[in-house]
Amino acid sequence: MLRERDVGHRVVVRRVVGLRAGRPLYSDALGELVELTETHLTLTTRQGRLRVPLAEVHRAKRVPADRRPSVAAVTELELAADEGWPAPTRARLGDWLLRAADGWTGRANSALPVGDPDRPLPSALDAVERWYADRGQPALVNTPLPLAAPVGAELDRRGWDSRPTVLVQTMPLAALIAASGGRPDLAATPGGWLVELAAAPSDDWLAVAAGSKGRPPAAARHVLTAVDQVRFAHAYDGGTLVAAGRGTVTGQGRWLGLWLVEVLPAARRQGLATRLIRALAEWAAEIGATDAFLQVEQRNTAACALYRRLGFTTHHTYLTRVAPPHSPGP
């Protein structure tokens, strides 16, 4: 049976879900254990939150630790991602990061609870709520799992909602270049498209990004461009932009981050997203990066299938938690 020390770890639970001909029916669930009380346990699974009364648990055990990334590995990758998507308004709560960007994207408008907030957890979350209330924004918290499982459990107790599960996926950069077809000819790709990398986004590029993330406010340009190593991929059919993507190199030069890879409907299913990724991967390798990461909603099945074909695997997951409409903590 599970114990308190198993909170924050990946576990498998077999539970009784009914009876048939007088015999119990079982169902298995795999996920991060975020809460364990005298009466129930709560898991974060790929399908969402699952609360199981202990009376229904037939068997439960922790999954071996070598199947999950270390705290240090999750922290490193989360901080590299923060560098690649920098909010213009930032503050610290101990080691935690507080970020705001006029409401443009959850990543740039959420607290990132990695490290020690330098105060008890309930007080830290009260401070998060006040910080966002002072800016007229809803409080959001990104909870990388299993790293922030205790934070998630406290947010559950407070009645916070969850946005869809996001997969943080990685692969070696050399393998990504090989899987996407080697060195692209940036002047004339086989599909007749022109693929270019630029240090700044064009107006057309911004319009494509607006289509996937909403009309960008002034703060969005900071989020997109305030990175030392950044490139914007543009793919043209004639003079018309048909696909866009963004690449950053952060984490002391190790990580290529892939962001906002978007192909317009008329140009989809022709390999264009792969060509943009390939161009960004070649650029990152030339300046010394060794690994790639991306963040994708689990429910985006088309994108997940593309990244799986290229060889990306899930490093960890995160949930964006949303505060209920009530007054900030004292």
TrEMBL record:
<protein>
    <submittedName>
        <fullName>N-acetyltransferase</fullName>
    </submittedName>
</protein>
<dbReference type="Pfam" id="PF24553">
    <property type="entry name" value="Rv0428c_C"/>
</dbReference>
<feature type="domain" description="N-acetyltransferase">
    <location>
        <begin position="195"/>
        <end position="330"/>
    </location>
</feature>
<dbReference type="InterPro" id="IPR056935">
    <property type="entry name" value="Rv0428c-like_C"/>
</dbReference>
<dbReference type="InterPro" id="IPR016181">
    <property type="entry name" value="Acyl_CoA_acyltransferase"/>
</dbReference>
<dbReference type="InterPro" id="IPR000182">
    <property type="entry name" value="GNAT_dom"/>
</dbReference>
